[in-house]
Amino acid sequence: GDSVTQMEGPVTLSEEAFLTINCTYTATGYPSLFWYVQYPGEGLQLLLKATKADDKGSNKGFEATYRKETTSFHLEKGSVQVSDSAVYFCALSVPSGGYNKLIFGAGTRLAVHP
Amino acid sequence: DAGVIQSPRHEVTEMGQEVTLRCKPISGHNSLFWYRQTMMRGLELLIYFNNNVPIDDSGMPEDRFSAKMPNASFSTLKIQPSEPRDSAVYFCASSLAERGETQYFGPGTRLLVL
After folding, report:
1. A residues 15-34 near B, CB within 8 Å?
2. Residue B107 and residue A42: Cβ atoms within 8 Å?
3. What is the rounded distance in angstroms from the CA atom of residue A85 to the CA atom of residue A11?
4. Which chain A residues have a beta carbon less than 8 Å from that of B99?
5. Strand partners, A21
6. Which pLDDT tens digits describe chain B residue by residue (114 residues)?
7. What is the pLDDT of residue B100?
8. Which of A32, A34, A43 sits opposite B107 (nearest CB)?
9. Taking CB atoms and an 8 Å limit, are A99 and B97 in contact across chains?
10. What is the dihedral of CA B87, B111, B19, B95, to 10 degrees?
């Protein structure tokens, strides 16, 4: 079935370090792909998305490219800040019974220290 | 614009009591989702409404859980009777029902059943 696999956390980085969080997916057809971020005590917020192969989503210095050949959507940021500390969820949207169902990965916790 | 509004933000109750969680989706959105988040199981979709009609309730754990959407601006998730294993964060999300359209999450209700 459709699924999302993320690298396990926590990921601990120093401020200004380079970030990569790996995400791979299994899906039939051509899903849309998303990264959501959850700050402590809050709900999930959309960080970026891509709706077709080779699209690059970007926001707040984060970016991810939809790679159909490797079924991946890895999240990257060139220089992380303490304020980026959060849990990051990769997700895909697939048709299911007449609507688009979001399937989430397990989440990767990022901790950035000064 | 106001985002998705959930109440209460925190709920502590005793086993066997009835719990009602409330959600107001973003105005104009025609899809509403209830999710449950736990450390063990991650994010789980409980139920999906489209135009106030329940479309997919396959994620509802058991008969103790019920959800309603009497109009486009209000939904409830009820647990009766509650059990300690229901302790989790419950999120409501809304969206426009188009392919790949973003789901917007509320801040969640943190439920603790003693």
Report:
1. 32, 34
2. yes
3. 10
4. 32, 93, 95, 100
5. A75
6. 689 999 999 999 999 999 999 999 999 998 999 999 998 888 999 999 999 999 999 999 889 999 999 999 999 999 999 999 999 999 999 998 765 578 999 999 999 999
7. 55
8. A43
9. yes
10. -110
| CB B60, CB B48: distance < 8 Å | no
The full 3-state SS of B69-108, as one line of letters, equals EEECCEEEEEECCCCHHHCEEEEEEEECCCCCCCCEECCC
The confidence band for A99, taking pLDDT boundaries of 50, 70 and 90, is confident
* CB within 8 Å of chain A, chain B residues 70-99: 91, 93, 97-99
Degrees, nearest 5: CA angle A101-A102-A104? 145
Task: Find tokens 């959060």 and name the residue.
Answer: A86
Closest CA in chain A for residue B99:
A100
Conformational region of residue A107, where left means phi above 0, alpha means psi within -120 to 50, and beta covers everything else:
left
β-bridge mates for residue A104, sequence order: A91
